[in-house]
Amino acid sequence: MKKLNTSIILFIAIIIFANLVSEQYYFRIDLTEDKQYSLSNATKNILKDLVEPVTVKAYFSANLPPNVAQARKDLEEYLVEYSRLSDNNLVYKFIDPNKDEETEMKAMQAGIRPVMINVREKDQMKQQKAYLGAIIEVGDQKEVIPFIEPGSALEYALSSSIKKITNTNKPKIGLIQGHGEPSISDIQEVGYALNILYDFIPFTLSDTSKVPDDFTTLALIAPTDSFSTRSLTNLDNFLNRGGNLFMALNMVDGDFSTAQGSALTTGIETWLSEKGINLKTDFVIDSKCGTVSVQQQQGFFRYNTNISFPYLPIISKFSDHPITKGLEAVIMKFASSIDFNSSDTLTSFTPLAFSSEQSGSINAPLFFDVQKDWTSSDMPLKNIIVAGVLEKKLEEQSSYKICIVSDGDFPVGGSGNQQQRLQPDNVSLMVNSIDWMSDDTGLIDLRTKGITYRPIDEIADGKKQFLKYLNFLLPILLIIIYGVIRMQSNRVKRIKIMEENYE
To answer: pLDDT tens, 299-352?
Structure first.
């Protein structure tokens, strides 16, 4: 009995000691593949450099379904870590907006909007209004995260929001105008993402306009008019002082109304060829592609149906590079192939994105046949380069970078009534590119940090049939085998009993 009491006392002492130690030496082990639950150095540096206290008000409804409540749990775990690493310079509290009308009104006025979720109650499905957002405040400044989706890149949302309201000296990024390019309002999703860390402003490139010294990077999106020699010289001068350039260019154009595809020239392609980048006036076609709506007629009836259109490649193959880390699928519209050829030893080129294993290219001009029955012989190529980065070393250990994508429309969503929601990775490709060229905080690694979609690899039709019949026949075969074994076992038992009775 005395020995038992000693053991109990020793066990309690160990528990108390462990709790005291854990308060002073907090740690956890992250065994996920991409260290999903470990804070990055970028976040740690942001928290370490905090001068003013940061307040996080998390507006979350109570009694959420488990799959939705996971977002609250993830946020709380992050905030505990943020508070600890900031030496308690970050404080947080959770508020239930559903508890009364006044609290709900405050949440909505602050920019937190409710979402409708499906919940099961007494074996019935019903919709419930729920809040899943947060407000980050530093002094008079605030940043709103209106909706926190379970599994999203939460660390990036928190760290970038803190960085945005604490950074008083943002680098400037210029959107080149003056050659038929879309305006900032036409790329709203990209602009919103860039304005977190930068001042993203329009800049008219002309014969007389010198690029301001405070611009770190320029972006050129889908120009349609020609560039003068003097404008290109001004662009060269910007690069030679260590500036960087992001380019999304259309070398071809497709007109659905006339079913014609034609080549585009603005003079920028000649300027690029002098640096070793060759943009071809061809249409990349891919078996992995988007669809177009086509009107068909059957009898007296007309109906619309979606048909695969290889001229709209879905790019899902990327190189191992900070720009493309975490990207899964970028939808392009009339992309062209890129190659690099330069004898300059100070210049290097890194491909970023490729077509699939079954792809090809067709030179412009051409006519679109939406009813064409495409076969593998139409797409004999693979890994056609559609995006890449050129780097050139300059004097005094400096360099410039040009990131180029052979589709000028991939980041353009339009404006007004014509605005369309972009594929998330379309936005990330451009923003990641500018981050890599302009930002040294490391936040680029956080944008796509979250739960990664891992699709099942495609399998051949023959293998599909084999697996189909295997799934059907295998259980039957196992039952038959079990029956045979069971019957044989019973036979052996009967023979043994009969022999014992005979003796």
So the answer is: 677 778 888 999 999 999 999 999 998 899 999 999 999 999 998 999 999 999
Question: How many other CB atoms are there within 10 angstroms of residue 328's CB atom?
Answer: 18
Judge: domain 172-438, CATH 3.40.50.880: yes
Query: Helix/strand/coil (H, E, C) string of 321-359?
Result: CCCCCCCCCEECCCCCCEEECCCCCCEEEEEEEECCCCE
Quote the pTM value.
Answer: 0.75
CATH code at 24-163: 3.40.30.10
Residues in the chain: 503
Can you read off the two tokens belonging to residue 358?
Answer: 């079954």
* Three-state SS at 397: coil
Q: Please, what is the Cα angle at 192 between 187 and 193, to 5 degrees?
A: 105
Two structure tokens written together for 336: 């062209």
Q: Per-residue DSSP letters for 367-380?
A: E--TT----GGG--
The values of phi and psi at residue 378, to 5°, are: -75, -15
Measure the CA–CA gap between 346 and 235, rounded to whole angstroms. Answer: 19
| Per-residue model confidence as pLDDT tens digits over 442-462 | 677 676 665 444 444 555 556
